[in-house]
Amino acid sequence: MMTAPARMRRPPATVSGQETTTVVNLVRWTYQDQRADSVSGVGVHASEAAADGDTSGCGQYGADSITTAERNGVLGASIRSTGHLQRYALHPDAEAVHAAVVSLPWGHALMLMQTGRTGQQPTPELHQTLDPVLLGGRPRVDVVETVTVRYPSGEYRKVAVTACPLEMYPPDCIADQHRAQYQAWADAITALGRILAGVPLVRWTIGWLGL
Fold it and tell me: Are the beta carbons of 63 and 37 closer than 8 angstroms?
């Protein structure tokens, strides 16, 4: 049974000029608009600078290893890091959010970066329907039982009682996986919210989680 994630309390006031947002929207802004995982030198693994071709030992200019692996997969080649020329201006709030994200356990960090980029967040429930079981493209008909029926003529005959079996779609095992994925994402958002509650931001004020 899923537990409801803790909600953040709304701050009593905001700094003049700041905009109130949610943790969910802030993650989306960080990775969709700011592309912090591609620009920031802060990554989810200590060896990711080497994965980006940076062998200098400073490890502060390359993109994170997830982005690097995706880029190399698309290009079919590895692009060697070019040092400070590869680092673009990044909003300080995006830097702070990304640093908080990569401080989470690796699975949570990966999930937040991926959902932040796509903007497609998990939902708590998966819609399921009862559908007929098909056989050869048509509803399967099974004989449930055979009963004896007396006709108006007085004749008795045996009649087969048939039915089409139904099945849940998507099956329960898929729905359970879906709920587990949502719970993991909600836990990650909640953990990130706790961290960001103590991080001063320039543009944004976090009002609630947004789950």
Answer: yes
Count the domains in the chain.
2
- DSSP letter for each residue of 97-126: HHHHHHTS-HHHHHHHHHHHHH-----S--
Task: Kindly state whether residue 76 falls inside one of the protein's structural domains.
Answer: yes
Domain of 148 in residue numbering reads as 129-167
Residue type (1 letter), 161: V
| Structure tokens given for 189 | 């958002």
Write down the pTM of the prediction: 0.62
Q: What is d(CA 124, CA 173) in angstroms, rounded to the nearest whole number?
A: 15
Return mean pLDDT, the chain: 77
Tokens 């592309």 — which residue?
35
Examine the domain organization and report whether 75 and 115 are in the same domain: yes
pLDDT tens-digit readout, 104-137: 998 899 999 999 988 888 888 888 898 999 888 8
Contact 111, 119 (CB under 8 A): no
Distance CA 50, CA 45 (A): 10
pLDDT classification of 187: cutoffs 50, 70, 90: very high
